[in-house]
Amino acid sequence: MNTAKFLGIAAAMSLLGVSMPAVAHASDSSTASTTPAPSYQTSSISLNAKTISTPSSFVKDGTTYIPIWYVMQALSQANIQNTWNNGVWSITIPSNITWDETNLPANNANQPSITVNGKPVINMPTVAAVDPASHAMTTYVPIWYMQQVLPRIQVQTNWDGQHWSMTLDQSQFGQSPSPTVHTISPIVNPNRKYTYTDMEADIRALANRYPDLVHTKVIGQTAYGRNIDAVSIGTGSATALVTGSFHAREWITTNLVMYMMDQYAQAYERNSTIDGNHVKAILDKTTMWFVPMVNPDGVTLEQSGLSAFPSSAWAGLKRMNGGSSNFTSWKANAEGIDLNRQFGAGWSGIYFDPVTHPWYEDYKGPKPYDTAEVKSLLGLIQAINPQMLITYHASGGLIYWQYKVTGTQLLVDQNYAKQLSGITGYPLVPISPNPSAGGLNDWWTNYMQRPGYTIEVGPPCGANPVPVSYFNSIWNRDKVDGLFIAIRSASLYPSHQSIQLKY
Ligand SMILES: [Zn+2]
Predict the structure, then answer these.
(1) Distance from the CA of 109 to the center of ligand 1, in angstroms?
(2) Spacing, Cα 250 to ligand 1 middle (Å)
(3) Taking Cα atoms as reference points, which of 260, 251, 252 lies closest to residue 231?
(4) Are 210 and 261 in contact (CB under 8 A)?
(5) Alpha-carbon separation of residue 86 from 17, 91, 131, 248, 422 (angstroms)
């Protein structure tokens, strides 16, 4: 390290009161934790004079730290691709942008760093601390260091001790690909608490707008009479499946799946690409099936509370919720059964199995495959024969990818898992002797021996829903996940032309 230079930096940071934001995963070991808890202040990030977010920041050792998640979100909105992985914040800029590669101070490959187009620019300290907005541990990084990097890529920044403004020439970085023929307005607005009612209305609107492309099917009904909806997009013989909201408080995964459906349908009609993937060519080979909300009763209870249920059910629902009328941590269906502990793989010996009666989370039910939601999903899988699947959960930013899979299948599954990790920036959960069990993907990979991925989106939020403010950054990471499995399903299809479910 250049000691003189960094003394200068410390002094400068002290004068500016600059703090570092950091975005980190719980598994990120590259950061030091803060003890005691820092003293937070509210700051803001703006892009070309528009406020993007108002993250909490804190001052440590004379410099201001801010959660990197929010900085990534701001750059993503400016169409600057960036990912955080294993202590490296990687920024990719378009080839038409010239950037200043002179006098790069980075000198230690083992420290957290910022890279531009793969080249290390600067090393920086990071701190793991709770993000008060999400109640989750996250990575904070110093604003000062980012201010040394962003001007090199033609993003001007100014920090006044509270407000961090970024300005750039958006025409240079490129707006979202502009439709050349005609504009198709979006149907799904994912930047809100998205309900079962919203979903049903948007599914109808999608089917009406794209009658040749989008088809809908009610695959079952819940105990309280809500539909379990499935939607297909595409015309291909191969199939792939994407599910959202197995768990009630993880409903932001419905926002993601619905927005994905809308974006894929738009791109198909426009004959356009998403991150270089030609959507029509892909979906003419593979029909994608989506179940955007596996657990509509649970999601509705989590979002709306008892008022959305008959009064005769209130006492029982409260009892399963520990006596509380606050259902924001509800995870099960409205019968108090955890739908992702309902599958047979490892069911009798689920590693963490704390309750034996209906409860707001973790109760696996009296026997596997016992709920209407799970039976409906199995019926769909039997009917459509998916070659691969993705099941979205929240939170933590991780990919689970196999349950006790061995041999050649393990290599196949792992190969795809590594590619998905590369696309999303989410790390893979390592193979362990006591993996969680009883989930859809455990059954799918172990019993059915086909590739499947449980993707946990969003920063770690414990027993709370991921705030909607994270949606754009989640979309930025996950927008091509569906196309990824569609492409690979087309190549797997010749050897998977039928399916026989195993229990
Ligand atoms: Zn979950």
Answers:
(1) 35
(2) 6
(3) 260
(4) no
(5) 27, 14, 19, 30, 12
Q: What is the pLDDT of residue 351?
A: 86
Q: Which two tokens stand for residue 316?
A: 């029982």
β-strand partners of 286 = 238
pLDDT at 332: 98
Determine the residue type at 316: G
Assess contact for 135 and 12: CB atoms under 8 A.
no
In single-letter form, the type of residue at position 285 comes to K
342 CA from centroid of ligand 1 (Å):
13
What are the tens digits of pLDDT across the range 305-357?
999 999 999 999 999 999 999 999 999 999 999 999 999 999 999 989 999 99
User: What is each CA distance from 244 to 264, 377, 485, in whole angstroms?
Assistant: 16, 12, 16
Closest Cα partner for 231 from 194, 267, 203, 256? 203
Distance 398 CA to ligand 1 centre (A): 12
Identify whether the C-beta of residue 345 lies closer than 8 Å to the C-beta of residue 454: no
Architecture of domain 196-299+369-495: 3-Layer(aba) Sandwich (3.40)
DSSP H stretches of helix in 276-313: 279-283, 296-304
**How far is 8 from 5, CA to CA, in rounded Å?**
5
Output the CA 325–ligand 1 centroid distance in Å. Answer: 22
Where exactly are the structural domains of the chain?
3-173, 196-299+369-495
- Give the model's pLDDT for residue 434: 82
CA–centroid distance, residue 246 to ligand 1 (Å): 6
3-state secondary structure 254-274: HHHHHHHHHHHHHHHHHCCEE
Q: Where do runs of H (alpha helix) occur along 21-94?
A: 68-77
Kindly report the backbone phi and psi dihedral angles of residue 37, in degrees, each rounded to the nearest multiple of 5, phi listed first. Answer: -55, 140
Nearest CA-CA partner of 293 in 342, 352, 252, 240 = 252
How far is Cα 66 from Cα 133, in angstroms, rounded to an integer? 12
210 CA distance to ligand 1 centroid (A)? 31
pTM for the structure as a whole: 0.67
Q: How far is CA 104 from CA 82, 101, 109, 160, 488, in A?
A: 19, 6, 13, 25, 40
Distance 439 CA to ligand 1 centre (A): 10
CA distance 145 to 122: 7
DSSP β-ladder status, 286-291 and 227-233: antiparallel
Weakly modelled stretches of the chain, pLDDT under 50: 1-31, 176-182
d(CA 239, ligand 1 centre) in Å: 24
The two tokens of residue 245 are 């909201």
Distance 476 CA to ligand 1 centre (A): 20
Output the CA 433–ligand 1 centroid distance in Å.
Answer: 21
Query: Are 82 and 76 a contacting pair, CB within 8 Å?
Result: yes
Q: How many CA atoms lie within 13 A of 90 on its CB side?
A: 13
How many angstroms is it from 88 CA to the middle of ligand 1? 27
Q: Distance, CA 174 to ligand 1 centroid (Å)? A: 36
